[in-house]
Specification:
Number of helices: 7
Distance between the termini: 44 Å
Structural class: alpha/beta
Number of strands: 7
Oligomer: single chain
Shape: globular
Order of helices and strands: HEHEEHEHEHHHEE
Strand order of the largest sheet: 3-2-1-4-5-7-6
Mean pLDDT: 92
Helix content: 25-40%
Strand content: 15-25%
């Protein structure tokens, strides 16, 4: 079953996203019949959470939205939480659930997207999947959403910075086997150096995967 086949009702999700999702699920050996705990940020008319339920029939689906009326989309295996994706109490509540997969299709405001990621990526369960997916990255380039091309405060620039954090040992460790030798810098390791397995940039979608084991954070031997 392709992911697009789960969307049998009207949805605002871009059709170009479906082959990307098929690629993500295939590359990460995700079994749609396995039992996962999945969060979609942004419920709206409910088509997304229902499609996730159809595609992952044995999983628990959670949706988060600020609109009270979204509670009506609750049904068996679909749980709706009402609140903001940047509310600290809501983020604490979500973090306790240790989701296997998180999809951010929420406000798309640049000051929301990375805060939500920074709060919830740490709580992702890495026992089965450990994927965090952000949709609609085009808003990172739009001033209306607090973004802008090469704006250091945009979500796209903050996600790009994760590449540097993932490779901090290259900055910190002295590399005496190279000529001229690199003496290294006094720089602390971060959570992402330890736990970010990869970050992938698709057109309009970013995917981060959490490691199953903490990285060595050291130069190769």
């Amino acid at each position: 079953m392709n992911f697009s086949e789960a969307y049998t009702e009207h949805s605002s999700k871009h059709r170009d996203y479906f082959p990307i999702y098929d690629n993500i699920f295939s590359n990460n050996n995700i079994d749609r019949n396995e039992s996962y705990k999945i969060l979609e940020i942004g419920v709206d008319i409910g088509s997304g959470v229902r499609a996730l339920k159809k595609y992952f029939p044995n999983s628990q689906i959670y949706g988060l939205d600020i609109k009270d009326e979204c509670k009506k989309h609750e049904e068996e295996n679909i749980n709706i939480i009402i609140g903001s994706q940047v509310n600290d109490k809501i983020l604490e509540e979500l973090a306790k659930k240790e989701f296997d997969i998180i999809i951010d299709d929420g406000s798309h405001h640049n000051n929301h997207v990375f805060k939500t990621f920074d709060s919830l990526f740490k709580s992702l369960s890495n026992k089965k999947v450990g994927l965090y997916i952000v949709e609609d990255i085009h808003t990172a380039y739009w001033p209306y959403y607090g973004g802008g091309y090469k704006n250091p405060n945009s979500s796209i620039e903050k996600f790009k910075n994760l590449i540097d954090q993932q490779n901090l040992w290259c900055v910190r460790d002295p590399i005496s086997c190279h000529r001229p030798p690199y003496e290294g810098r006094n720089i602390e390791s971060t959570y992402y150096e330890k736990w970010l397995e990869f970050i992938q940039f698709y057109e309009n979608i970013i995917v981060m995967k959490k490691r199953k084991k903490e990285a060595r954070c050291s130069k190769p031997i």
